[in-house]
Amino acid sequence: DTGVSQNPRHKITKRGQNVTFRCDPISEHNRLYWYRQTLGQGPEFLTYFQNEAQLEKSRLLSDRFSAERPKGSFSTLEIQRTEQGDSAMYLCASSRRTSGASSYNEQFFGPGTRLTVL
Amino acid sequence: AQSVTQLGSHVSVSEGALVLLRCNYSSSVPPYLFWYVQYPNQGLQLLLKYTTGATLVKGINGFEAEFKKSETSFHLTKPSAHMSDAAEYFCAVSGPLQGAQKLVFGQGTRLTINP
User: Fold this and answer.
1) To bridge A23 with a disulfide, which of A88, A92, B11, B37 should be the other Cys (CB 3.0-4.6 Å)?
2) CA dihedral over B113, B79, B58, B100, signed as positive or negative
3) CB–CB of B90 and A55 under 8 A?
4) pLDDT tens digits, residue range A39-82?
C-alpha cells in the first residue's frame, strides 16, 4: 500500500491551455474524490466516483472541467481553456467501505497537484 | 447543508503549552467529524475522527478532540505543543451516511509554535 499518488505535483501553464492531472488511489479503494484548495482556504469538493461511475459533481465544476475513471482504478481531471482563477491545489482522495453501515468515512488524501495559470 | 467554522485563522502557542483549536459545525443529520493536518506543499493527513460512540476521541501525535452535540463543537487539543506541530489544521464534517459522504472543510487554522 503506497498511498494515493498524484501526477504531476506541479503544473505551470498559460491561460487558454488544457491541462490534465492523474490520480492513482489506494488499491481496492472503490471511491475516489477530487477537491480543489485555493490559497488560505480549506479544500472544496468537486466530484466523486464509485468504481467507474461519476455520481456527483459540484457546481464549482464548470463545463471546462471533466473527470474520468474509466476502469475504476486511476482517475484523470482535465481542465480546458484554463483561466487564472483555476490556479489552485487539486487534491485527490480515496476511500473504501467499512463495516456494515455503508460508510466510506475515512478518506486518504494524495499530495496534490499545484496548478499555476499565468 | 453542512458547514464548519474554525475560530481563529492563526493560533500561536509556546513550545510545551496547551494547544486548543476550535471547530463548530452545522449539520441537519448526525455528523461525522474529522481533523486533518496539512504540512506545506503536502496533502492532508487524518489526525482523528468521530463517527459514533465515545465522544472523546484520541488521534495521532498526542491530539484529541471531544464531540459536544449540545454545543455543536469538535475542538482539537494537545496538552503540550511540539515544534513539529506547526502546520495548517482543518476541521471537516461529512454526511449523510447514504450518498457521497463528501467532506466539508472549515477554512483552516495555521498553528505556529514559538520556541
Assistant:
1) A92
2) negative
3) no
4) 889 999 999 999 999 988 888 888 999 999 998 899 999 999 99
